[in-house]
Specification:
Elements: H1 2-33, H2 37-72, H3 74-79, H4 81-108, H5 116-139
Length: 142
């Protein structure tokens, strides 16, 4: 029963994290589209609060994911090639999360170098990664 609760918490925190990962680049789109300084300042606050709100969810996703691997055991881990592929994609999502912080910092310093279209494309990238991760976790085949 414990493993099911750990799995449920892992999934819950992953969903909460992804919600923020999907929304932050959308805020960047709007931020890059405005020239009104008052609006820019408001976006800076919203972006910062969102990033710091979802980052604990990213950490909790990691903690519960590692806990699951530990509970299933090293033999299971060694034989689960689908999980190895999933972990590569998960590492890419954490790198993406870090990159969002770099962009957030550039906006905070009024040093954005990208047009709104860049952020629209960036906003779609994690959708593909999440699709692949969920597919691997459910189908368990590679």
């Amino acid at each position: 029963m414990t493993i099911l609760w750990i799995k449920a918490l892992h999934i819950f925190f992953m969903i909460a994290w992804m919600a923020g990962i999907f929304y932050l680049p959308r805020l960047f789109v709007y931020h890059a589209s405005t020239s009104n300084m008052a609006v820019k300042e408001q976006f800076k606050i919203m972006e910062r609060r969102l990033w710091f709100f979802v980052t604990p969810f990213a950490l909790l996703t990691l903690i519960f994911g590692v806990w699951l691997i530990f509970l299933y055991g090293s033999a299971w881990f060694a034989s689960s090639t689908w999980l190895h592929a999933k972990l590569v994609l998960v590492i890419a999502l954490y790198a993406y999360h870090g990159y969002l912080y770099k962009l957030l910092d550039a906006f905070a310093k009024d040093k954005n170098k990208h047009p709104p279209k860049f952020y629209r494309i960036l906003n779609e990238a994690p959708v593909l990664g999440l699709f692949a991760i969920v597919s691997l976790a459910v189908v368990k085949y590679i």
